[in-house]
Amino acid sequence: MSLVIFIMFGCVAVGCALAMVFARNPVYGAIALIVCLAALAGEYLLLDAPLLAAFQILVYAGAIMVLYLFVIMLLNVRREEGCRWCTDWRTYLGFALAGLIGISFLFKASNVAHPAPPAGFHVYDVTGVAYTMFTDPTLLFVIEALGVLLLMSVVGAIYLGRRFSAEEESLLKRGEPEASKGKGAPDDVPCGEAAP
Amino acid sequence: MIQTIHVLWLSTILFVIGTAGVLVRRNAIVMLMSVELMLNAVNLALIGFARQFRDVTGQVYVIFIMTVAAAEVAIGLALFVAVFRHKRTLDTQKIDLLRW
Prior knowledge:
Strand content of chain B: under 5%
Oligomer: heterodimer
Largest sheet of chain A: none
Helix content of chain B: over 70%
CATH topology of the domain at 1-79 in chain A: Four Helix Bundle (Hemerythrin (Met), subunit A)
Shape of chain A: extended
CATH architecture of chain B: Orthogonal Bundle
CATH class of the domain at 1-79 in chain A: Mainly Alpha
Structural class of chain A: mainly alpha
Shape of chain B: elongated
Radius of gyration of chain B: 17 Å
């Protein structure tokens, strides 16, 4: 029974992942990815990880994907100009490379004997996860490193999102073709307007 | 009864779709979303192994990966907004200032 539900969630996840890759409009792609992540949260529930299922919904489908949708709509990249991908040899090389990676993974995974998981559900609740997370000294070090990483990403995002000074603008303009040079500086208006 | 190999199959399929998206698409935001998909495929495999070995460490690592993904998204989207401000496009074929 659980295998049937697993396959159903898996079909939803794979279908939405394909829709994300093939969607012409990035907004539809983002929504398909949200459904895919929600289906994966269902898989986590089946695989004895209810805490991670909740995190998946809250952090991934909630916070991260909303950030994606916000940026897509802020930048207004509705449609890609021209083709999603042009049918040249690089595209086929990309598909072939992805398929090769998949075949090698499947080959490796099928060659290793996986003992059957213990029967029945063994649900890890918050206590079990938190006990391992905060008692293993290695994992404790990783938590500290992740805290620094998050701080750095916040500082970096604020630094990147600020309005550039005129000096930096001229530096950035130097590498551009002649056509966009003569227009003065029309670029710094729209994105920075909402910022206080 | 879900076997570990079923989890690995699904994880591989999702990883391959994500890889194809990164390699083939030209919209930078869609490429970043494909990277998210690949991270989730790895998370699924980790949870499958955590279940098989009854070891919760795999689930702890999934939480770490989620944290790294959040940081990556914050930086990546800030970069894209900054690039879009100057280039007016997110087509990776047209953002080639650093290309030799």
